[in-house]
Amino acid sequence: RFVMIDFVVAGFTAVASLRKEIERMGGLALHGHRAMHAAYDRVPYHGVDYRVISKWARMAGMDHIHVGTGVGKLEGNRIELAERLEILREQKSKIVNNMRFVQSWGKLKPVFPVASGGLHPGHIPVLIDIFGKEAIFAFGGGVHGHPRGSRAGAAAVRDAIEGVMAGKSLDQIARSSKNLKEALEIWSEIKF
Question: Which CATH number characterizes residue 93's domain?
Answer without folding.
Answer: 3.20.20.110
